[in-house]
Amino acid sequence: MIKNNPYFQIIILSLCSFLSVAAHAANQLESVRIWAAPESTRIVFDLSEAPDYTYFSLDGPNRLVVDLKKSATKVALKNLENNSKLVKGVRVSKSPTKGDLRLVIDLLKPLNASLFSLPVTAPYGNRLVVDLEDKTLTTATAVVSSTPVKTVTQAAQSSRDIVIAIDAGHGGDDPGSIGPSGVYEKKVALEIARRVSSKINDTPGMRAVMIRTGDYFVNLNKRSELARNSKADLLISIHADAFTSPNPRGASVWVLSMRRANSEIGRWLEQKEKHSELLGGAGEIIQNTDNEQYLAMTLLDMSMNSSMAIGHSVAGDILKDLGGVTDLHKSRPESASLAVLKSPDIPSILVETGFISNPKEERLLSSSRHQENIANAIYKGVSRYYHNNPPADTLLAQRGGASSSSAKSTKERTPTAYVGSSTSSNVKHKVSRGESLSAIAQRYRVPMSSIKQANGMKSDVVQLGQTLVIPQS
Predict the structure, then answer these.
(1) What is the pLDDT of residues 40-49, one digit of tens each?
(2) Per-residue b/e over 413-442, b at no fewer than 16 CB within 10 Å?
(3) Cα–Cα dist 305/438, whole Å
(4) What is each CA distance from 263 to 78, 297, 339, 404, 420, in whole angstroms?
(5) By the 8 A CB rule, do 444 and 428 touch?
(6) pLDDT at site 163
(7) Rounded Cα gap, residues 62 and 109, in angstroms
(8) DSSP code of 341?
(9) Are 171 and 44 in contact (CB under 8 A)?
(10) Pairing outcome for strands 87-93 and 101-107
(11) Among 242, 251, 236, which Cα is nearest to 199's?
(12) What distance in Å separates the CA atoms of residue 383 and residue 40, rounded to the nearest whole number?
């Protein structure tokens, strides 16, 4: 019989042995990528399946050891591209468990490590991500773009530049959206961001800081922190839109939704140690007072409303110029719950430069000429707003003269898109998505009660598209 045939038994034993080895080394490490940022490094392990892993740190010398369960690799780790100032290299070491793969990341100094897995997302498969950051790093700093020397008069030396933080979306292992011919959003965003930054730095009284200057990823929560540490007056995040069909097209500008704003205020209220960071001297004054929570909430609400009002106005100015160089997907600022817009103390906007999923716009967004046109439109909108509304302590305000500076300071938070005729004693405001009565009152520096009285309102509720008369105080 076949089952008693010795050759058949040998085949069965060989097959079982092969299946056993395959089961123990089911997951293959297919490649390793190192993404170096100025103050951190991300290492990405590309795997054939979702990873099952453990890790631990060692010192003398400093190492991070990662054990991948039931895994194997044929990758030549000695040939990895590595420009990191934190990581010496990656190597394979003997695993104490048969069938497991032990990887050792040799570090140049003690680092904080964060590990997590990512599922299949085009163009990448399963991944294990290792984020490494310097333990001695206390404050994050954005990169100040190469700025030409600006000559100022002796009287203006005490005045500061207006600081614009430019955030190129995605980066590193996060390509963002990918166009039909393979153009990456992260590359388009960085090119346009560099052009905007250059134009701002060429403007006396203005200075740009780049959130990322190369092809690496910056944590979404850290982008606002970098802008804050740079004392930014405005944060602009640059992206390219995408959709499941190739039909949508056009640029748009987004601001924070009121719902997300309210949730962020609540989150910041719980972090008492952050109050001074957000509220400056006021945060220190209200510390340990009986009404600290109430006062902090009031100040944070005012700060958020002011930031949102300025962001909405800048967004409107940018849209005017974008409409002259490209199609607009939305002709008015749109509101959304986006992480990069959530800072309560920094006016923040997100510019979608076009749909990279649209073949025609993908070609445009890859063009240097179109990138220059988009960058110029963003710059013109920002420059026009801050030349018309310079903060009082800035060089731009001082150059406008004392009386002009005072007038501009007063209207600094008035959204020009909705202000009516200046010859009238009252102005009119059309309620847009996400706005509340308190936010509108803060924008125009008018008590809520005055607005309610002028419009015969019995409650604080406003409706989308409602036109309000704003009495002038």
Answers:
(1) 999 999 999 9
(2) bbbebbbeeeeeeebebebbebbbbbbbbb
(3) 8
(4) 48, 12, 12, 37, 32
(5) no
(6) 96
(7) 6
(8) G
(9) no
(10) antiparallel
(11) 236
(12) 33
**pLDDT (0 to 100) of residue 259:** 60
Strand partners, 68: 53, 101
**Which amino acid, 40?**
S
Q: Give CA–CA dist 82/451, Å, rounded.
A: 60
- pLDDT value of position 413: 37
The mean per-residue pLDDT over the stretch 112-118 comes to 94
| CA-based nearest residue to 87, from 63, 106, 113, 67 | 106
- Give, for 469, the enclosing helix (H) or strand (E): strand 467-471
- What does the block give as tokens for 340? 């990069």
Sign (positive/negative) of CA torsion 267, 271, 277, 280? positive
Residue 186 burial by Cβ neighbours in a 10 Å radius (0-12, 13-18, 19+): buried
Integer CA distances (angstroms), 66 to 54, 94, 96, 134, 320, in order: 6, 12, 12, 19, 52
Upper half-sphere CA count for residue 195 (Cβ side, 13 Å):
21
Report helix, strand or coil for 188: helix
**Residue 404: predicted pLDDT:** 38
Interstrand relation of 348-355 and 252-256 (parallel, antiparallel or unpaired): antiparallel
Instruction: Tell me phi and psi for residue 470, to 5 degrees.
Output: -105, 105
Phi, psi of 256 (to 5 degrees): -70, 140
Statement: residue 196 has pLDDT above 70? yes
Tell me the one-letter amino acid at 96.
Answer: P
pLDDT in tens, 387-420: 999 988 899 988 873 333 333 333 333 333 333 3
Contact yes or no for 225/271 (Cβ under 8 A) = no
pTM over 0.85: no
Query: What's the CA gap between 148 and 151, in Å, rounded?
Result: 10
